[in-house]
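Apologies for my clumsy wording, but could you write out the amino acids of a protein and the tokens describing how it folds?
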Amino acid sequence: MGVKVTYNSPVILTFTIVSFTVMVFSVAFKDLTPYLALHANFEWASADYYRLLTYTCVHSFKDFKLQTDFTHFISNFTIILLIGPVLEEKFGSKKIFLMMAFTAIVTGLLNTVFFSNGIIGASGVALMMVILGSFTNYSTGDLPLTFIFISLLFMGNELVSSFSSQQISHFAHVMGGISGGIFGFRYAR
């Protein structure tokens, strides 16, 4: 009776492995940020629309320190690996992938339209999962108290933090939270 290791959450694990590989490759060999990040000067006429997804896999940046790269990655993927498998089991691999893609694309598009900075990282996806996770035992017609508390804690913190001068896209966090709330009310019945 041996222990069998299973690939229990294919979307979440694949996303984690791809993002980790991009970070390690960027640090050890060649920075992939210029090829995968969503840049501030996004060209609408270009063929770079893939960046609306790939920026979520980039957690290193040539101006960041190595410790910052790993902190950024660990912050996002601790949440994603804790909550993601539960959500993938509840909603299915296809639906959780579509939720992640929707969150990334909408956040990227709105960031490009309204802000003059580029964007990297899976923070929006992580916050989408935090808010969506508060709906795991939701039934139609109810407003989960966990949703209210999580929204106040996470979203309130992001709104307050957005006035600081850090290199963090609090907008991505807020958009992720909004997406999680929308998906929660829509699909968590």
